[in-house]
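Comment thread on ticket #2218

A.B. wrote:
> Attaching the input chain for the structure job we discussed in standup.
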Amino acid sequence: MSDQVRPGSPGKIRVLIADDHPMVRQGLRVFLGLQPDIEVVGEAADGGEAARLAVELRPDVLLLDLVMPGVDGLGALELLAGSGPDSGVEVRTLVVTSFGDHRSVAPAIRAGARGYLSKDVEPSALAAAIRAVAAGHVLLSPEAAAALAAGSGPQTGLDPTEPQLTVREREVLRLLAEGKSNREIARMLTVSEKTVKTHVSNVLMKLGVADRTQAALWAVRHD
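C.D. wrote:
> Ran it. Output below, let me know if you need it in another format.
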């Protein structure tokens, strides 16, 4: 069990690392410590400890390995989901794991993960992914997106029927799936942010999904 916990600094993205290999945790802590806007506030060696520290520390991003002894990464996601909305805990989880089995992609996303990367990701790309997930974007590596689109895991529960989206709504959905914020979409489409919010609301309603994450996943699965 890891007990390395320290308070975060104001204005920085607070990260909790969950991995059963001490050397991996140490390497991540050293690298992320070099980023001016990221701070590691805790480490966990298994899923149970990760869920407990996530509730206790409320980090902005949880870097989560899926393959751990005892409670694994999926178990940690389930524990966090079971905390309930009244707990006030909202941790955006970025899965960083080995791609030995692509069938883990869909269950992880369905359980609440906001991103999914392979452990062989470039360090600079990992830092960028942390920032993207912290900002509320959905981020999948090309391998994860391909696995999800190919249906190589359990279904996400999203409605597979073809919705009647307008041309502009499809543009908004495509940009949303690329992880763009409402402000970025508004700038790219030369419309107001309020108009984008309206389009996003319409897209969610027509797709029959609850949030931007599910809409982005729908877009990935249906190209």
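A.B. wrote:
> Thanks. Noting for the ticket: The first strand starts at residue 13 and ends at 18.
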